[in-house]
Structure formats: C-alpha cells, structure tokens
Amino acid sequence: MNNWLNHHTQALKQVLSRMRRHAWSTFMICLVIGVSLCLPSLFYLGVDNLSKLAEHMQSDTEISLFLKHDADATTIQKIEQQLASNNAILHHHLVTKEEAWQQLKKNSASNQDLSETVQALKNNPLPDAFFIQAKSAAPDELETLKNSLQNIPGVEHALLNTEWVKRLATLLNLGEQFIFFIALLLAVVLLVIIGNTIRMQILTQKDEIEVSYLIGATNSFIRTPFLYAGVLYGLLGGLLAIAMMMLIMMTFNYSIADLSQLYSSDFSLRLLNSELFITMIGTAVSIGWIGAYLAVSKAIASFKLM
Amino acid sequence: MIQFDQVTKRYPGSDEVLRNVSLHINSGEFVFVTGHSGAGKSTLLKLIAATERPTSGTVLIANQNVSQLKASAIPFLRRRFGLIFQDHKLLYDRNCFENVILPLHINGTSGIEAAKRVRAALDKVGLLHKEKAMPITLSGGEQQRLAIARAVVSRPSILIADEPTGNLDASYAADIMAIFYAFNQVGVTVIMATHDALGISAKQSRVLHLSQGLLNEHLLHPTELEDNQASLENASVENSYDE
Known about the structure:
The complex is a heterodimer. Chain A is α+β, with helices and mostly antiparallel strands. Chain A has helices at residues 2-21, 23-58, 73-85, 97-108, 112-120, 139-150, 163-204, 206-214, 219-262, 274-303; strands at residues 63-67, 89-95, 129-134, 155-160. Chain A folds into 2 domains: 2-57 and 166-303, no CATH class; 62-161, Alpha-Beta Plaits (2-Layer Sandwich), CATH 3.30.70. Chain A has a 4-stranded antiparallel β-sheet. Chain A is elongated, with a radius of gyration of 32 Å. Chain B has helices at residues 41-48, 74-78, 96-107, 111-124, 140-152, 170-185, 229-232; strands at residues 2-10, 16-25, 30-35, 56-61, 64-65, 81-84, 158-162, 189-193, 205-211, 214-220. Classes of the chains: A alpha+beta, B alpha/beta. At the A-B interface, α1 and α8 of A face α2 and α3 of B.
C-alpha cells in the first residue's frame, strides 16, 4: 500500500516537474485542448440559451378561438363550459364582438388611414373570440389542444400563433445534433493531439525507459507518469476552456442585457452551467487518459526486451 | 545460483550466437567472460540478466526457469542484478544523484532511506563530492564509476558488467577493477565480460571463454597465464599487471 502510494506520488512529482521545466509547451498543449473543448461547448451554450429563450416566449403564446358570426349567447355559454372543464387550459377569457369593435376603434384612432377604413365599415365585422392560455408550452400539446378546440361546434377558426416557435424548436433540435457531431470530431482530434504529445515525450525519454526496463521496471512504473501527464493535460485544458468561456459569456451578457432591455425582458445568459463544466472537465480528463494509455501501450510493445 | 543447460540463442535472421552452452556459477564467485567481439559475450550476459530469452535450453536463475517465468515476474527477477553497460547508459538529462536513485525509484524505496543509500553508493565509487554534477561533465572513468554506483545502489547480490573497462585507459581501468574486487570481497557475485585479460591476474580467476558461440572454461592462476596464452587466443596477456 505504502509502496503503491510512493509509486504514484513519485510519478506525479516527476510529471509536474517536467511540466514546470517545459511550461511553455505545456501551456500550448493545454491551450489547444482548451480551444477544442470551447468550440462545441459554446455552441451548446448558444443552443441551450436559445431553447430557454424559446420557452420564455412560448409562455406568451395563446390560442385564439374565433366563433362563428351567428353564434348566439347559448352557444357561447356552451363553449365557455367546455373550456372551463378542459384540463389542458390554464385560463381563458371572452372578448365579445362589441368589445373587440370598441377596442379596434380606440386603437386605430391614432392611425388616420386605419381609422378611416374602420369608420367606413358600417357593420361590425369582428366575431366573438375566446383567448386561451394553455397549461403546457410544448408545441405538440398546443397543436393537439388547438385541433380539439377547432372541433367544438360554433367555432369558426382556432388560431395558434406558435408556428415560428415550432420551427425554432426544430432548428434547435438540428443544432443539437450538429453539436453532437462537432463534439465527436473534436474528441477524436483531442485524442490524437494528446496521444501524439505523449508519444513525443516517450521518444524524448527513450533512454530512461530503456534503462528502467533493463534494471527491472514494471510496465506500470513506465506507464503511470505518462497517464498522469495525459490526465493533467486534460484537466488543465478543461480549466482553460472554462476560463475562456466565462470570459466570452461575460462580454456577451453585456450586449444581451441591452437587448433584453429593449424587449423589456429580464433574460440573460446562464453563466455558470456547472453540469456543462463538469462534463467538459470529465471528458477532457478521460480523453487525456485514453490518449496517453494508447500511446504508452504502443510504445511499451516496441520497447519489449523479451 | 546461475545455471545454463544446453542453451542456444539465435536472433531472427542470424546464425546461432550461442551453441549448447552449459555452465554453473555459484554465489560469491568472480567470473570473467572472454572472447572476440561478436563471440557472444554480451548475449551470454543478457541471458543471465533475463533481458533475453534462450532460443532453446534452460536458464535457471535462483532456481527459477527464465523461459517459463511470466512476463510480469521478469522485472522482479531483473532487480536481483546490478547491470553495468559498456556505454554506461547514464541519463544525461539529470545529475549524478538522480541517476543513481533510479533503481530505488523502480523498487519503491524513497525518501531519506533512498538518499542515504544513494550517497553510500556514490561514496563507494568515490563520487560523493559530485552528486550535483551532470554526468556529461564527468570523465570517462568517472562516468563508469557512476554507472557502477547505480548498479550497486539497490544492493544486488549479482553484478553483471559488460566490458566496463573497454573504453578506459589503464589507470582508470585499474580503479574500476579494484571497485569490483571490493564488492566481490563482501560476497557479491561478479560476472564480467572483457575482451582483454586485463585484471585477470590478481588471484585465481575463473574464465569462461567464448569462441564462435561455443564455451570453454578455464581456471586461471596468475602463474598459469603464460601457459594459457594459446587457449585465450586474443587475450592480450602481455599487459597482465602485477600488483
């Protein structure tokens, strides 16, 4: 146990001192790893925040239910009862044709053209309408609710103005798939970079490895320092990536705060996404370990003495 | 302690380097391996040090058959030996102290105990005052002594030296030989390959002579040197030195 601990602390010390001696090249490698991690993570954050923005907007969506012109008071009452008993509906309110007409007149007063057109109309062309707020914001559920409302007798047209939200959701979905493949490709790149770095280090320490084998080193004695190096590259690269992302997000957040104010929304980018950060570090460390392991195993096979 | 039985070694694409070699080396012996370059001396030493496997025959080291040993057990067998190479195989990216401590790192000794042992080993070869020096700044003889310090630091019971004096002038070579004799005095088995008979003179020595892969064995007394000249062939006996 003590021996095992010794072996590991020695390997770690050896790697750390080597990294300190070659601080610049270590930094460069970590930078490459950091940037490679940053790219898919930034994409992810972008899509993630856009989805949140989409949800934000979906909560504003409502279904407009326009009734037939000949709908009388009893029909309206029947429809209202049905709406009240529907579990999917959060709340609804009725705007009668008279109310809508008054409102239109009032709203168009400031606009001369519109006002003239409205004045020209002798009869009220507007129907009675229900404005419905659904409990769910999911596009699919809204769609089914809309269709069921459409089928109520006395309803002329049910309007769901969330078509663009649906399109956005599809686009975001596409974006997620895109990110997945980008991440996969960059993982391969990282694996190659770390593997190659470790391979170069093995080459520069060829003599040491050879002598160590001759005087009785085990494979794990040879392997451990390089595994630590791979893991440390991953860890440092991951931390660097997080630092870079924080910086980028912070500058973004200033502009977004301005934008949000224009839309009188309190939306801001989620800066501390701990899950994402843990995933980034975890991925980088595992890739570092795997890359180093592959490189060392290949090298060990070529160093085999007998 | 070391026993070869009908050992043959052939490298891929070459003739047999060793043919039907049988030998037995006891604990505490001082054995020379002589022969032309290319006669198989280095191969014989590599087989003893378990850094090569025999093509056929059996190599027993401390009653363990090297051919049948698991790959994972080989490193632990190698740790019984102190190896000294003709080209030193020192590591030039670190100082003398760090060179000598390597075997201790490998067998898991560390801290104060390791530092103590390293200094003791450096002291034995007379390099204690150079522990912070880089090997490249040492003379040829000092580098070889440093290699010896690295070989003995883990207190092996067998020292295997492949032409340790090969590249050194006579006075340095005598220094090195004296160090080996001193280790032999305290019970360490020494097996040394040499292409000249320098130093095979101080006392009765056992000589394993290799010629074209075949082994001849001699027991060499200082007084017998002249008589054995014929069988030693290239052994430059004329420089047999008196004390």
